[in-house]
Design brief:
The protein is α+β, with helices and mostly antiparallel strands. The chain has 8 helices and 4 strands.
Length: 205
């Protein structure tokens, strides 16, 4: 079942701008993902901004930011009815974690001095990847298509680009963008970028 579902995923560049998935499909998928996604100590040190359906202003701004470095192929940011913006988050912790902290246990995602350092963000991005995978699977099961975008300027170093595009509702470092909706089949192009062989990426020891 999970193989069949995820095998349907393609990197969609163009979405059907005449129809949007019902918002309950999106909210149910987000709720279910939240309920089952793995997270170290259940801290969930990330935040998701769900944009849609068809917020053309924000779509255009996201596209502008992505295109700033010269990448203009991410038309999914213009045409998808829903966008998900993943950022880091200063985690507040739960009762168990906060109790452990009283015994000098450290949690970098909860420390303002360390929640954005290299090693903490590396771990946070693993968790974002798990969230994205589950959310993608649930949306694909519901008949939707998804896209992923990593082509955008660093939020901290190039914050003026994000602010110039009036994306000032974003509070922290953007790590990942995901789009969802129904693909525009008239504009779909199958990727010609072949995968490496399994032997190239897998070694049994």
């Amino acid at each position: 079942m999970i193989y069949t579902t995820l095998a349907k995923r393609n990197q969609i560049r163009w979405y059907d701008e005449t129809r949007a998935p019902d918002e309950t499909i999106i909210s149910d998928a987000l709720t279910s993902t939240h309920d089952i996604v793995a997270s170290k100590q259940n801290l969930m040190p990330y935040k998701i901004y769900a944009v849609g359906p068809f917020n053309k202003d924000i779509n255009q701004r996201l596209y502008n930011v992505s295109a700033h470095g010269g990448v203009r192929a991410n038309y999914n940011l213009l045409t998808a009815p829903y966008q998900f913006i993943y950022t880091v988050r200063l985690a507040t912790g739960n009762a168990k974690v906060n109790s452990d902290l009283s015994g000098n246990h450290k949690q970098p995602p909860m420390d303002p001095a360390t929640y954005k350092n290299y090693w903490t963000i590396k771990n946070t991005n693993i968790e974002i990847g798990m969230h994205v995978t589950i959310l993608s699977g649930l949306l694909i099961e519901a008949g939707l298509d998804v896209s992923y975008t990593l082509c955008f300027p660093d939020f901290d170093d190039k914050k003026e680009i994000w602010l110039d595009n009036e994306l000032d509702f974003i509070e922290d470092d953007v790590q990942f963008l995901m789009s969802a909706g129904y693909a525009d089949s008239s504009k779909y192009e199958n990727s010609t970028e072949d995968r490496p062989t399994l032997a190239e990426v897998l070694t049994w020891v």
